[in-house]
Design a protein that fits this description.
InterPro entries: L-lactate/malate_DH (IPR001557), Lactate/malate_DH_C (IPR022383), Lactate_DH/Glyco_Ohase_4_C (IPR015955), Malate_DH_AS (IPR001252), Malate_DH_type2 (IPR010945), NAD(P)-bd_dom_sf (IPR036291). By secondary structure, the protein is α/β, with parallel strands linked by helices. It contains twelve helices and 14 strands. The structure holds (2S)-2-hydroxybutanedioic acid.
């Protein structure tokens, strides 16, 4: 029997990431080749024409899994028209009880000196979206709604969304660090000249920012004689503790420099990986990195959205416990945790 369609809301749908993401969703890359979807695509007035173009392309692509498209243009100018925004977002969220919200509009682009702007951004996107979700879903059963925040600062945007959408369980609000996780896999695969699919169990700890810690201490590579630790095969701790880490940390900025645009293809692909594994489960013996509400595991600060190694079963993630953390790693985990605590304080000071 054919499955019921799942509703997926993509915000910033006409933007770079949205444009790369919606065909992947409509083709079944995110939720499976047998899962019909209804797309709810949201953007702001300057993107209305572009969104219409995306609509035409979606018709032209004749995706057999795509059972409907709903387009929403949101007019807003900071908090002044919050009420209108809420009304429109309520329309976007109509009848979505089992859905994924993919918040994908652009963020800080790795530029320096825009901390205050980020804060305002948090207020506008996080507060408004969160309040809208909350207002629509308050009191309703929405335990199925799963949220992936992509827009930067992704971890803290997700935290603000959690604050203002209290009827969505905290465990259902996550942010994207799978992009960094995949980047780490890619770097190891290039270094060792092995298939990327043979590398697994890298970890991204902390923030989706340049303080994130890509950790290979538990990562392995499949070889003809079994799984071998990455460190044993690379035989170059200086590279693993130096250039590898900074390359992954700064990959987003390097792509912006090269493309004059932020990463969209890899971000959209990682968003699909994130939700697919969350919903359909991680393979046996494999973990992935997800930004999730921290319970203080590994002495990370509790109450921030922190990236951990997780496994997923039955639509739920679980932090992998008991991994050894050496002194070098401890410092890196603490550094990125401190940045998240600082971002949280800044965001809350703007919102109060
Ligand atoms: C990325 O990691 O590619 C992006 O988060 C970069 C950015 O600042 O948009």
């Amino acid at each position: 029997m054919a499955k019921e369609p799942v509703r997926v809301l993509v915000t910033g749908a006409a933007g770079q990431i949205g444009y790369a993401l919606v065909p992947m969703i409509a083709r079944g890359v995110m939720l499976g080749a047998d899962q019909p979807v209804i797309l709810h695509m949201l953007d702001i007035p300057p993107a209305a024409e572009a969104l219409n173009g995306v609509k035409m392309e979606l018709v032209d692509a004749a995706f057999s899994l795509l059972k409907g498209c709903i387009f929403i243009i949101v007019w807003f100018k900071f908090q002044m028209v919050l009420l209108l925004l809420l009304m429109l977002l309520r329309r976007a969220l109509e009848s979505i009880l089992q859905s994924w919200l993919v918040v994908s509009q652009g963020g800080r682009n790795g530029k320096e000196g825009c901390y205050v702007k980020e804060c305002v951004y948090l207020q506008v996107s996080g507060f408004c979206l969160g309040t809208a979700c909350s207002s629509k879903l308050q009191g309703e059963k929405n335990v199925f709604t799963k949220v992936l925040v992509v827009a930067n600062p992704a971890n803290t945007n997700a935290l603000i969304l959690k604050e203002f959408a209290p009827s969505i369980p905290a465990k259902n609000i996550t942010c994207l660090t799978r992009l960094d996780h995949n980047r780490a896999l890619g770097q190891i695969s290039e270094k060792l000249n092995v298939q990327v699919s043979d590398v697994k169990n890298v970890i991204i700890w902390g923030n989706h920012s340049s303080t994130q810690y890509p950790d290979v201490n538990h990562a392995t590579v499949k070889t003809p004689s079994g799984e071998k630790p990455v460190r044993e095969l690379v035989k170059d701790d200086a590279w693993l503790n130096g250039e590898f880490i900074t390359t992954v940390q700064q990959r987003g900025a390097a792509i912006i420099k090269a493309r004059k645009l932020s990463s969209a293809l890899s971000a959209a692909s990682a968003a699909c990986d994130h939700i697919r594994d969350w919903v359909l489960g991680t393979p046996e013996g494999t973990w992935v990195s997800m930004g999730v509400y921290s319970d203080g595991s590994y002495n990370a600060p509790a109450g921030v959205i922190y990236s951990f190694p997780v496994t997923c079963r039955n639509g739920e993630w679980t932090i992998v416990q008991g991994l050894a953390i050496d002194e070098f790693s401890r410092k890196k985990l603490d550094l990125t945790g401190a940045e998240l605590t600082e971002e949280k304080e800044l965001a809350y000071s703007c919102l109060s």
